[in-house]
Design goal:
The chain is built from 7 helices and 17 strands. By secondary structure, it is an alpha+beta fold. The protein has 2 domains: 100 residues, Jelly Rolls; 161 residues, Alpha-Beta Plaits, CATH 3.30.70.1230. Strand 2 and strand 3 form a beta hairpin. Helix 3 crosses helix 4 and helix 4 packs antiparallel against helix 5. The two termini are 14 Å apart.
Length: 286
């Protein structure tokens, strides 16, 4: 941490989207964006083809400088934002500019990758994949009722998104009772999974997580491949509060400050042969 400043007029990255632009500045690990959306802009029209998801899966926290924006959640809840409003928008929303004035805001979350153009062709890259889900989600949903459960899952998704962004990851998608995230390093993936777990505990939920590193395909904002399938199967073998990682991940974590326990050999459904897994035991400074 150090004393520093940046100017949007000298942005480190300028991302253009249909009827909009995002000016990005970086303060070491903190990424801040100025979003400008022109009249007529709508996420589901102008950004959805870039993101490749049904709704915006980013968590936004910021302040409105000018213009008005209306946000709609999947349950039909709507909120209109205007100048001076400090806002928080959970993942899973649509939004559109209201009126004839551009909407300009400063956003302090999810700006590392929001609005980045993706190559239309399939791209194969090496990535660390995190899969999580909420333990006993069916029972909890029945006990809480549909409305309360929906609110709780929304809060979980919001906190998970913040944890993923904090460790430079990308929320690929929510899965109803969990998340799929992509990281560019094994250590950040494990620390991100631990942050999601800790955030869930704070709202009374237990999650389990699986982490694996391998080659994946990025297709229209989604990730595919055997590495994704492997991470999901590792997660399925984890217990409440557990983060299990593959031997591949372990090989990449020397000197990371993360400590693991031997979780034994596991036959992962749909994968050939037993796999050695490890359980996250403690987290040192990173």
């Amino acid at each position: 941490m150090r004393l520093q400043r940046r100017r949007f007029s000298e942005a480190s990255d300028v991302r253009t989207i249909p009827r909009g632009r995002i000016d990005v500045v970086e303060l070491d690990d903190t990424v801040v964006g100025r979003m400008t959306y022109e009249p007529g802009w709508r996420w589901s029209v102008d950004v959805q083809p870039i993101a490749g998801t049904d709704t915006c899966q980013y968590h936004h926290v910021g302040i409105v400088l000018s213009g008005r924006l209306r946000v709609q959640m999947p349950d039909g809840t709507e909120l209109e934002l205007g100048p001076g409003d400090v806002f928080e928008i959970p993942p899973g929303h649509d939004a559109w500019v209201v009126g004839d004035e551009p909407w300009v805001s400063i956003d302090f979350e999810a700006m590392r990758t929001y609005g980045k153009q993706r190559d239309a062709r399939d791209e194969r890259i090496l990535a660390s994949i995190v899969f999580t889900d909420i333990v006993d989600s069916t029972r909890l949903a029945e006990e809480l009722g549909a409305a309360s459960w929906r609110d709780l899952v929304g809060e979980h998704n919001r906190k998970a998104s913040g944890a993923i962004d904090r460790y430079r990851g990308r929320l690929v998608k929510t899965t109803g009772d969990g998340v799929l995230a992509q990281f560019d390093g094994a250590e950040r993936a494990v620390r991100g999974a631990a942050a999601i777990r800790d955030a869930a505990v704070g709202i009374g939920l237990a999650i389990r997580a699986g982490v694996h590193t391998g080659e994946v395909q990025t297709v229209a904002g989604d990730v595919r491949g055997i590495a994704v399938h492997t991470a999901a199967r590792i997660m399925a073998d984890a217990g409440a509060g557990e983060i299990l990682v593959s031997a591949t991940v372990m090989d990449l974590l020397d000197g990371s400050g993360l400590a693991f326990e031997d979780a034994g050999m596991h036959e992962l459904k749909g994968l050939h042969g037993a796999r050695q897994l490890y359980r996250l035991a403690s987290i040192g400074p990173g």
